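**Sequence with structure:**
===
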Amino acid sequence: MKYRIALHKSKEGLSVSVPGLPGCSSHGSTEQDALENIRDAIREYLSVVNEQLKGADVREVEVIV
């Protein structure tokens, strides 16, 4: 899957957020670190979401933008 991310320079390096996943963010001292860390954060975020959806009637819809 691909997610849009927003990179922002900070005093510590770069902060990264995922607009499509509210509350999913990370940081890193370099761009490479920040990107690796946000990948891990996205995986963890989706793992929690999947756990919360266990037993629910989950469906997908297609949206064209």
